[in-house]
Amino acid sequence: MSTMINDRTYRIARENTQAMIVDVQERLTPHIYDHENIVKKTVTLIKGLQALNIPIMLNEQYKKGLGDTLPELREVLEGDNAKSFEKVTFSACDNNDSWHHLAQQNRSTVLLFGAEAHVCIMQTALDLLDNGMQPVIIGDAVGSRFPYDKKQAIRRIRRAGGVISTVESILFELCRSSEDSAFKTIINLIK
Q1: Can you tell me the distance from the alpha carbon of 183 to that of 3, in angstroms, rounded to the nearest whole number?
Q2: Degrees (nearest 5) of the Cα angle 7, 8, 11?
Q3: Which residues pair with 143 in a beta bridge?
């Protein structure tokens, strides 16, 4: 283990991490660029986070218009204690119930994934930063209708202080060791 030179830690610690799925819904997702791969990566990420016992919450934008979360995600989340919140605000932090749940977890690192990168993901990330939390955007599990919008959102979030990672990278970082009980599950998920 290295000696800490300043107060800041750059490693993402499991015990300080929670996850938020944003708007992976039936009427929005088919319009997201490369949505098939994003959904596949999201399912892998959810299963890995479950193996690591990371709390997961679900946000859904205006269900009457955009529909429910995709069945393949609901199926993976079934039996999990994932809390679900409907919102009409773009930032999940502007939804009182969602924000209250997020803050109540007492975990300052929030993994964000879903849609759209340049709207709900970005606004949530910026609000998390404004409230002293660390957003970690899972780049291969977020999307927008147009790749340029996603690219610009990732750029803005990074400049503001957000961290960008990938599904495989974050799962191994949270696992930390091949001796961890979640390792076999994670290695089988990413094969």
Answers
A1: 26
A2: 135
A3: 115
Question: Quick one: tokens of 106?
Answer: 């007492």
Contact assessment for residue 85 and residue 46, using Cβ atoms and an 8 Å cutoff: no
CA distance 137 to 139: 6
Of 86, 14, 90, nearest to 53 by C-alpha is: 14
Two structure tokens written together for 188: 């089988």
Confidence of residue 3 (pLDDT cuts 50, 70, 90): low
pTM: 0.94
CB-CB contact of 77 with 101 (8 Å): no
> Is it the case that residue 5 has pLDDT exceeding 80?
no
Q: How confident is the model at residue 6 (pLDDT cuts 50, 70, 90)?
A: low
DSSP single-letter state for residue 162: -
Nearest to 20 by CA among 77, 72, 78: 77
DSSP notation for 50-104: HHTT--EEEEEE-HHHH-SBPHHHHHHHTTS--EEEEESSSSGGGSHHHHHHHHH
The predicted structure's pLDDT at residue 181? 96
Judge whether 60 and 97 are in contact, CB under 8 Å.
no
Q: Write out the DSSP string of 19-36.
A: EEEE--BTTTGGGSTTHH
Burial class (CB in 10 A: 0-12, 13-18, 19+), 78: exposed
